[in-house]
Amino acid sequence: MLDWIGEFWMDYGSMIIAISAAITLLGAVFTLFKNNSISTKAVDRTDQAERVLLAENKTLSAEHKTLAAEQKILLERTADNKAALGEVQKVVTAIDKRAEMEKEIRETRERLLDPQQFAVKEAVDKIYAMSENWQRLITENAGLREQVVELRHINGQLREQIQNLEIQQDETQSTEEWER
Fold first, then answer.
1. Phi-psi region of 38 (alpha: psi -120 to 50; beta: other; left: phi over 0)
2. Taking the model in full, what pTM does it have?
3. Which of 5, 33, 57, 96 is the most buried if burial means most Cβ atoms within 10 Å?
4. Which residues, in sequence order, are CB contacts of 21 under 8 Å at separation 6+?
């Protein structure tokens, strides 16, 4: 899931970019009027800055759409996981009922066993419990491995997006410095 910064950027990112572009444009116009020398060079620079800002806005809007699509996919996966969890809960309930029935059967058998038979039964139960425990651990380990691979993939994608955003911010800063 995306953290709160990602959600904030997805919700208000385009608006922030548009406001930044408007503030930059107003600053450029104010400077030109202040110096009382609106020349063709200044107009050309303003037009060029406006084109750069529009291009950046389009790029960031495309990234916003991409992130929104990724969020939609994650939400769909979450819904699928919730449905699967419901099925798992049914199985767990059935297993709990079965365990209760097995417990009742065991208690009845234990009352009917002599001491030697009871000792053998306890040894078999211990071996069975260890076997079930190992099987559970093996199953959990396989599930965790799949989750680690998926999380590594998502982590790589997010790092790549962060690097792309940093590169774009550096380009924006260098463009602004060049305009000055």
1. beta
2. 0.27
3. 57
4. 50, 53, 54, 56, 57
Tokens standing for 162?
């962060």
Report residue 104 as tokens: 């009742």
8 A C-beta contact, residue 172 and residue 56:
yes
28, 46 contact by CB (below 8 A): yes
For the chain, how are helix, strand and coil distributed in percent, rounded to 5? 95, 0, 5
